[in-house]
Structures are given as C-alpha cells and as structure tokens.
UniProtKB/TrEMBL annotation:
<dbReference type="Pfam" id="PF02866">
    <property type="entry name" value="Ldh_1_C"/>
</dbReference>
<feature type="domain" description="Lactate/malate dehydrogenase C-terminal">
    <location>
        <begin position="142"/>
        <end position="306"/>
    </location>
</feature>
<feature type="binding site">
    <location>
        <position position="85"/>
    </location>
    <ligand>
        <name>substrate</name>
    </ligand>
</feature>
<keyword id="KW-0520">NAD</keyword>
<dbReference type="InterPro" id="IPR018177">
    <property type="entry name" value="L-lactate_DH_AS"/>
</dbReference>
<comment type="function">
    <text>Catalyzes the reversible oxidation of malate to oxaloacetate.</text>
</comment>
<keyword id="KW-0560">Oxidoreductase</keyword>
<dbReference type="GO" id="GO:0006096">
    <property type="term" value="P:glycolytic process"/>
</dbReference>
<dbReference type="InterPro" id="IPR022383">
    <property type="entry name" value="Lactate/malate_DH_C"/>
</dbReference>
<feature type="active site" description="Proton acceptor">
    <location>
        <position position="172"/>
    </location>
</feature>
<feature type="binding site">
    <location>
        <position position="79"/>
    </location>
    <ligand>
        <name>substrate</name>
    </ligand>
</feature>
<dbReference type="GO" id="GO:0005737">
    <property type="term" value="C:cytoplasm"/>
</dbReference>
<feature type="binding site">
    <location>
        <position position="165"/>
    </location>
    <ligand>
        <name>beta-D-fructose 1,6-bisphosphate</name>
    </ligand>
</feature>
<feature type="modified residue" description="Phosphotyrosine">
    <location>
        <position position="218"/>
    </location>
</feature>
<feature type="binding site">
    <location>
        <begin position="117"/>
        <end position="120"/>
    </location>
    <ligand>
        <name>substrate</name>
    </ligand>
</feature>
<feature type="binding site">
    <location>
        <begin position="76"/>
        <end position="77"/>
    </location>
    <ligand>
        <name>NAD(+)</name>
    </ligand>
</feature>
<feature type="binding site">
    <location>
        <position position="62"/>
    </location>
    <ligand>
        <name>NAD(+)</name>
    </ligand>
</feature>
Length: 310
C-alpha cells in the first residue's frame, strides 16, 4: 500500500514511523514545504525498516503522491502552549488552500485523512475544497479522546481496555462530549458493571475521568510543547483499517448532514472505517444532557466553519 503524508513535522513523521513499525505501508512519501526536513525524516525513518518491515520511505514533491491509496494531511502550524485548537484555524486554512488542489491533481483517487488541528474545522475545509464524495475525506477527530476514555474506564473497572467500549463525540477539543450513557463492558452499561464489581462510578470518579480526557492534550503540551506519539499511532491504525477494509468502528470526524438539528457540520461520531474511508455513520442514543452537550459542540463547530470563507 502506498501512503502519502503532507507535513513531515512531528505528527506526520511519527505517523510514517508508526506505519513502518506496523508494516502497514510498503511505500511512504513525505512531502513538506521544508524539503530538507522531509528528506531528513524520510532517511531517519528508512533506517528503522531493517528492524521492522520492508517499507520504502522517501521524501518527494506532490507529483510523487501519484498512486497513493491514502494521503495523510498533517501540515500546518503547531499548537502553542495556551492555544486552543480553534486559535489555529486561520493559520491553517491558508495552508490547505494550497495543499488540497496539489494533492488532488496528483492523487485523485486517494482517501484524504486529516490530522492537522483544529481537526474538525480543517477536515471541513478540506472536504469543501476537495468536493470529494462524503467518506473520502475525514479527520482523526476524537480517536485519541475515545482511547483515553476507554483506558481510564478500564483502569477504574479493572477490565482490559479492549473489553470496554466507549466514545468521545463532537469536537476534538474543549466542547467534546464523553458519551457516558453509551459506554459498555460485556454489553452492560459501565455504571452497572461498576456497581457489580464494587467499584462505583460516582460523581467524583466521573468528573476525574472527564477532566483527565478533556485536558490530556493541554497537559502534554504543557510538558513537551506538542503531542505526536499518540496521534501518530492512531493515524497508522486508521490507515490499517482502510488498507485491510476492516470496517472498524472509530470516532472520526466527517461532514454530517444533520446532527441535533444542525446541518452539514463536521464532527466525530461512531463511524465504520474501511476501504474507501468512512463507510457508514451510527446514530447514538443520547441522554437529554448528552443531546444538549452535543448540540453545543456542533453549533460551535458550525460557527467556526462558517467563519472561514473559501
Ligand atoms: P505538528 O506538531 O502538528 O506535526 P509541526 O510544526 O511539527 O506540527 O509540523 C508541521 C509541518 O507542516 C512543518 O514541517 C511545516 O514545514 C509543514 N508545512 C507548513 N505549511 C506547509 C505547506 N503549505 N505545505 C507543506 N507542508 C507545510
């Protein structure tokens, strides 16, 4: 499988590295405004291949993206300490006006996987600029938030994270919604599992988990300036789901015709990912409180997207 990555900074190069370690891509092309950086990253990652899988990793221009099954869009400005993801919006919109036509000219059949923040709005911009069919453009959305939610619930319950099913929906950012009423283990709502196991999910436990999920990126940025390992691995996991046509259920961000009465908004919902990108979207069953929270998140994203004139 050939994978193109535009933006060879921390996130793009870590995604390439994860793809090599997982043996998902046979051919990886890194494109960056900073050609010297792309070349250096490609060589460094290529040197890992003898310890992993046979992958060809190289730097190139947009023409070298030809034949890519997936192009990961990880270019743009990095989030600075104190920045909200929406602060990045204006800076990144300009970048994608240049990148999207160049990618489409050379890889017209690729699935576009957006990683740049604010990921929901950038995904919306890329979808609007590309005019590709729905599903062919989507963003990493809340995959990490959901992974963290699952991990923290699993830890609280004393159950393997793979046995806990839980999603964070809406914006990848401050307004995100932890879908507590839909979280299950063994097909049983987590609150009930918690009671059965004598580890109740009381108000305090819930708010600790909520805070930990919602503030995770801020804490990492405070400590090391940016985040890249988690998202790099997550992007590689999404690419594998496309490559193997897994029909994997993930909370990824895509244009949504109608959610909570808001039309054409790009946000995360549980979606089936396989060959061709997002294949289906599930409609969650929310509590009243979750309905209201998701509506707030959708409205905020709709307003942010509307503020960008393309
Ligand atoms: P992150 O932490 O999100 O990966 P970085 O700043 O490390 O952020 O990486 C972003 C990369 O995007 C940089 O290497 C930068 O050169 C690249 N970039 C910025 N604008 C463009 C563009 N128009 N085309 C291609 N690459 C770009």
């Amino acid at each position: 499988m050939k994978v193109g990555i535009v933006g060879a900074g921390a996130v793009g190069s870590t995604a390439a590295y994860a793809l090599v370690l997982q043996g998902t891509a046979s051919d990886i092309v890194l494109v960056d405004l900073n050609a010297k950086l792309a070349e250096a990253q490609a060589q460094d990652i290529q040197h890992a291949t003898p310890f992993a899988w046979a992958s060809r990793v190289r730097a190139g221009g947009y023409a070298d993206l030809a034949g890519s099954q997936v192009v990961v869009l990880a270019a743009g400005a990095a989030q600075r300490p104190g920045d909200t993801r929406l602060d990045l919006l204006d800076r990144n919109a300009a970048v994608f006006r240049q990148i999207v036509p160049a990618v489409l000219d050379n890889a017209p059949d690729a699935v576009l996987l957006v990683a740049s923040n604010p990921v929901d709005v950038v995904t919306d911009i890329v979808a609007r600029l590309s005019r590709l069919p729905p599903g062919r453009v989507f963003g990493s959305g809340t995959i990490l938030d959901s992974a963290r939610f699952r991990a923290l619930l699993a830890e609280h319950l004393g159950i393997a994270p793979t046995s806990v099913h839980a999603y964070v929906l809406g914006e990848h950012g401050d307004s995100e919604v932890l879908w507590w009423s839909g979280a299950t283990a063994g097909g049983i709502p987590v609150a009930e599992v918690a009671d059965q196991l004598g580890r109740p999910l009381d108000e305090a436990a819930r708010s600790t988990i909520d805070e930990s999920v919602r503030r995770a990126a801020y804490r990492i940025i405070d400590g090391k300036g940016a985040t890249w390992f988690g998202i790099g691995a997550g992007l590689s996991r999404i690419v594998r789901a496309i490559n193997k046509d897994e029909r994997l259920l993930l909370s990824v961000s895509a244009q949504t015709p109608d959610i909570e009465g808001i039309h054409d908004v790009t946000l995360s919902l549980p979606r089936i990912v396989g060959a061709g990108g997002v294949l289906e979207t599930l409609k969650p069953d929310f509590s009243d409180e979750e309905h209201a929270a998701l509506r707030r998140s959708a409205l905020l994203l709709r307003e942010a997207a509307d503020s960008i004139k393309l």
